[in-house]
Design goal:
The complex is a heterodimer of chains A (223) and B (244). In chain A, helix 4 (55-79) runs antiparallel to helix 5 (88-110), helix 4 (55-79) runs antiparallel to helix 8 and helix 5 runs antiparallel to helix 6 (112-123). Chain A has helices at 2-12, 22-29, 45-50, 55-79, 88-110, 112-123, 129-137, 144-174, 182-185, 195-198, 200-218, and strands at residues 176-177, 180-181. Chain A has 11 helices and 2 strands, in the order ααααααααββααα. The model of chain A has no long low-confidence stretch (mean pLDDT 83). In chain A, a hairpin with a 2-residue loop joins strand 1 (176-177) and strand 2. Chain A is mainly α and 223 residues long. Chain A has one domain (30-214). The radius of gyration of chain A is 19 Å and the shape is globular. Chain B is an alpha+beta fold. Chain B has one domain (45-241). The model of chain B has no long low-confidence stretch (mean pLDDT 87). The chains are: A mainly alpha (223), B alpha+beta (244).
Chain lengths: 223, 244
């Protein structure tokens, strides 16, 4: 997929392009569905399993990843002509690690309970293949604005999947939505919660069903 | 693109300096807010050993009003000054650093939870503790009633026990099992032992036992060891204040 995007850019390069031209809109919309980083490219699975027990930390995680992807894409794209090829991976890592550390420090200062829940996983955004994949495949060869859009697309593609997974995991595993005990509210207090959903196995199952639905609709088949 | 070695070295050197600058700036700017967050978190944990806090409770206010702290040594004698000769503050005693020392040489913070209507009468004592779980450190606060025998409440935390298994020590469900248990058999300190396996029937357990966590026996052992070690260390203090 990545090479395809690169070629596309070279071919369709025009001097004055609209800010949200059709080609640019596709940077954002493609990863949401047909080229979703989690369900189609199957990247970023570990964090998708680890942080999706409850919705609140999942949303924080999603926002953090979107922030890191967008800004690392932007920064790398701005520097793309200066970065020596031989050390480009280290440069990319340096940029990602810096952004991740900033996110982690901000969480520690202003949302300490979330920092305790997410602590290690925010740090692990550095190793999230989606982020580095986008830098290497896209930002290194494209202009800043395109890269920002590409980052937004991949980030939101990641975000909606983990938020959906966490919704079902929290609903079925803990009987709540955003810590609000929904079954008690509708007088079904003895709703049998599934311990399985609290375990990472539950995330695998929800993710599997999600991929199934998506692929049966899009007709996508792996080669 | 291919660049000369000099370019690569200069580029990475500049990048390192810039990144280092950004990071130290962030750390400096956010430092005070982080300190406040950690203080709030610690006080929440201390208080949750003796009372059920709700979201939005004025933790710092309650803490200020009802908690008095002091530091004691292994024999239960109060320590007034730290090793540098400065006045000692229980909240600043680093439990982890002390954990690494010989138990007889540690500084032991004691938090006294005072009665709401009478700020001079002690309702419960809270002791911080620290130990090893299955994967990493576990820690907690244990509150004893003023008889120094009955457990009033407990608040455990952990770094990375297995979610759904050992991590359950941080849940109310497991911590509730300790309430009302006693740590002394006559004059002998026996602590409270978490059993292997999970029966989910509180009536099966004696005054020094609690139900275990299914699939987390090793975390349970860590909790047992932590409780026993620290209650033993605090025994000097406990004996001095115990009412028979």
């Amino acid at each position: 997929m990545s090479t395809e995007t690169l070629e596309q850019v070279v071919v369709e390069k025009q001097p004055q392009e609209q800010l949200f031209s059709k080609r640019r809109r596709r940077f954002v919309t493609d990863p949401l569905n047909d080229d979703n980083p989690i369900t189609v490219q199957v990247l970023g699975i570990c964090s998708a399993l680890a942080v999706t027990v409850k919705m609140e930390p999942t949303i924080i995680m999603a926002v953090s990843v979107v922030f890191v992807i967008v800004f690392s894409n932007l920064i790398i794209s701005l520097m793309r002509n200066l970065i020596p090829t031989r050390v480009r991976i280290i440069v990319q890592l340096g940029v990602i690690a810096t952004l991740v550390t900033v996110v982690s420090e901000v969480l520690k200062a202003y949302s300490y309970p979330m920092y305790k829940v997410l602590g290690a996983f925010v740090g692990l955004i550095i190793t999230n293949c989606i982020v580095m994949g986008r830098l290497e495949a896209f930002a290194m060869g494209n202009k800043p604005w395109d890269s920002v859009l590409d980052g937004l697309g991949s980030g939101f593609g990641y975000a909606w999947v983990i938020i959906t997974v966490s919704f079902f995991r929290e609903l079925l595993g803990s009987g709540s939505v955003f810590n609000f005990k929904i079954f008690e509210a509708i007088h079904w207090a003895n709703f049998p919660t599934m311990g399985l959903m609290v375990d990472p196995i539950g995330a695998f199952m929800v993710l599997g069903i999600l991929i199934w639905i998506q692929r049966s609709r899009s007709g996508y088949v792996e080669n | 693109m291919q660049r000369s070695n000099t370019y690569v070295i200069i580029f990475t050197a500049i990048m390192t300096v810039v990144i280092g600058g950004i990071l130290s700036f962030t750390s400096q700017v956010l430092g005070p807010a982080q300190k406040r967050s950690i203080e709030f978190d610690t006080k929440t944990q201390i208080l949750s050993a003796v009372m059920q806090l709700k979201k939005g409770d004025d933790v710092l206010g309650i803490y200020k009003k009802r908690i008095q702290s002091s530091v004691v040594d292994y024999d239960g004698n109060p320590i007034e000054k730290d090793h540098k000769g400065n006045p000692i503050d229980a909240a600043k005693v680093n439990i982890l650093k002390n954990y690494k020392k010989d138990p007889k040489k540690r500084e032991y913070p004691v938090y006294k939870f005072m009665k709401e209507d009478n700020p001079n009468e002690i309702e419960a004592y809270i002791f911080p503790m620290y130990g090893a779980g299955l994967w990493n450190a576990i820690f907690g606060y244990v509150a004893l009633e003023s008889d120094m025998n009955t457990i009033r409440g407990i608040s455990f935390g952990h770094i990375q026990e297995t979610p759904g298994l050992g991590a359950r020590i941080a849940t109310r469900e497991v911590q509730k099992r300790y309430e009302g248990k006693t740590i002394f058999e006559g004059n002998k300190l026996v602590s409270v032992i978490m059993q292997k396996g999970e029966k989910k029937d509180p009536s099966l357990f004696g005054p020094h036992q609690v139900d275990g966590m299914s699939g987390a026996t090793l975390t349970g052992k860590g909790v047992n060891a932590m409780l026993f070690n620290y209650l033993t260390s605090y025994k000097g203090f406990i004996d001095k204040h115990r009412q028979n």
